[in-house]
């Protein structure tokens, strides 16, 4: 059986419910009857925890190793996420700048080739147009 997040969530909900029952019974303790009920509920809770543990082993885990290290160092994973987004934005801006620079170079090179070698002007125009540029 493939474990899903829905299965794990159902196990967590049942564990929370069992914990609530144990807390309620401990708060309103009425002797031997309550003790037996608490004992049964704790056994049920242990069984649910075992089920959750077994389910968790089969869940797909796709966490970056850097994030795991970040959390193990008692650091806030939200900060990791923010830093990652900032890095991606920076790299995207650099890539955009490079793409714009190459597009500008393509247009300048095409214009200079067309003016320098008039025999290939039509071919240069076709190549520049096919790559998304235009000769001025």
From TrEMBL:
<dbReference type="InterPro" id="IPR019145">
    <property type="entry name" value="Mediator_Med10"/>
</dbReference>
<dbReference type="GO" id="GO:0003712">
    <property type="term" value="F:transcription coregulator activity"/>
</dbReference>
<comment type="subunit">
    <text>Component of the Mediator complex.</text>
</comment>
<dbReference type="Pfam" id="PF09748">
    <property type="entry name" value="Med10"/>
</dbReference>
<keyword id="KW-0539">Nucleus</keyword>
<keyword id="KW-0804">Transcription</keyword>
<keyword id="KW-0010">Activator</keyword>
<dbReference type="GO" id="GO:0016592">
    <property type="term" value="C:mediator complex"/>
</dbReference>
<protein>
    <recommendedName>
        <fullName>Mediator of RNA polymerase II transcription subunit 10</fullName>
    </recommendedName>
</protein>
<keyword id="KW-0805">Transcription regulation</keyword>
<comment type="function">
    <text>Component of the Mediator complex, a coactivator involved in the regulated transcription of nearly all RNA polymerase II-dependent genes. Mediator functions as a bridge to convey information from gene-specific regulatory proteins to the basal RNA polymerase II transcription machinery. Mediator is recruited to promoters by direct interactions with regulatory proteins and serves as a scaffold for the assembly of a functional preinitiation complex with RNA polymerase II and the general transcription factors.</text>
</comment>
<comment type="similarity">
    <text>Belongs to the Mediator complex subunit 10 family.</text>
</comment>
<dbReference type="GO" id="GO:0006357">
    <property type="term" value="P:regulation of transcription by RNA polymerase II"/>
</dbReference>
């Amino acid at each position: 059986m493939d474990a899903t997040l829905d299965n794990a969530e159902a196990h967590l909900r049942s564990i929370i419910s069992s914990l609530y029952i144990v807390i309620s019974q401990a708060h309103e303790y009425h002797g031997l009857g309550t003790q037996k009920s608490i004992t049964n509920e704790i056994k049920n809770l242990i069984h649910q925890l075992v089920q959750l543990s077994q389910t968790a082993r089969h869940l797909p885990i796709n966490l970056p190793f850097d994030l795991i290290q970040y959390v193990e160092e008692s650091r806030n994973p939200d900060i990791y996420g923010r830093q990652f987004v900032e890095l991606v934005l920076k790299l995207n801006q650099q890539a955009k700048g490079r793409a714009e620079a190459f597009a500008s170079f393509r247009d300048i090179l095409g214009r200079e080739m067309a003016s320098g070698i008039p025999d290939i002007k039509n071919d240069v125009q076709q190549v520049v147009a096919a790559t998304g540029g235009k000769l001025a």
